Amino acid sequence: MPADEQGVAGSADRYALIPRTLCFVLNGTDILLLRGAPTKRIWPGRYNGIGGHVERGEDVHSAAQREIMEECGLQVERLQLCGTVTVDTGEARGILLFVFVAHAAVRHTSASAEGTLHWVPQQQAAHYELVEDLPVILPRVLAVAAGAAPFAAHYSYDAQRKLCISFAD
User: Fold this and answer.
1) Which in 13, 27, 92, 153 has the greatest CB count within 10 A?
2) Which of 105, 106, 102 lies closest to 142, judged by CA?
């Protein structure tokens, strides 16, 4: 269907979503987490997965692979979509997060300006200073990696700016 038939031309005032990826790389029973650089605008010093924006012309799978390569220098196997998260930022534009899991045959990573990389035992990840949603979604990501169905989640913020997470179960 041509672009002019997609119905987006008159949609400037509609709610829009910015696509991003979040990837969790596994090696055995360990998970690769990125501790955000102290100079990062968002989540400095916090542990998170690997990810970023989907660029124009990319599909989400290719974007996830590119972000993994850029942020840690790994070629991964079995990149699998685990879920989607719609983030209501309270603005006219939100975020649509595509959450993946992948497997790395090797543990050697390359440094990036994003932060420091750490292989963490999956069972101990909750003891790290994680980005606020990870204690909730990481168990679901690992469940999908083990054979469960992908999840769909919605994030919003209450009047006190506290994260509210709901799942379409």
Assistant:
1) 153
2) 102
